[in-house]
Write a structure and sequence with these properties.
By secondary structure, the protein is mainly beta. The chain has a single domain, classed as Ubiquitin-like (UB roll) (Roll). Helix content is about 10%, strand content about 35%. The longest helix has 7 residues. This is Sulfur carrier protein ThiS. Pfam families: ThiS (PF02597). InterPro entries: Beta-grasp_dom_sf (IPR012675), Mopterin_synth/thiamin_S_b (IPR016155), Thi_S (IPR010035), ThiS/MoaD-like (IPR003749).
Length: about 70
């Protein structure tokens, strides 16, 4: 299934949830936020949030520094 992740076309190869995408992209277990179609998805709902073809996701990673 093709999705747009941070303005880049991405193919989700297995599964169809936000959690599946996070696993595929090897995202860290902390310090990451994901929005689907401009709606933030709480981490507790990642395994329940089903993705659909052409969904647009924004992944934000926390960074330390100042």
């Amino acid at each position: 299934m093709k999705l747009t992740v941070n303005n880049k076309e991405t193919e989700l190869t297995q599964g169809n949830t936000v959690a599946d995408l996070a696993n595929q992209l090897e995202l860290p277990t902390q310090g990451v936020a994901i929005a689907v179609n401009n709606r933030m998805i709480p981490r507790t709902q990642w395994s329940e949030q089903v993705l659909h073809p052409n969904d647009s996701l924004v992944i934000i990673k926390a960074a330390c520094g100042g």
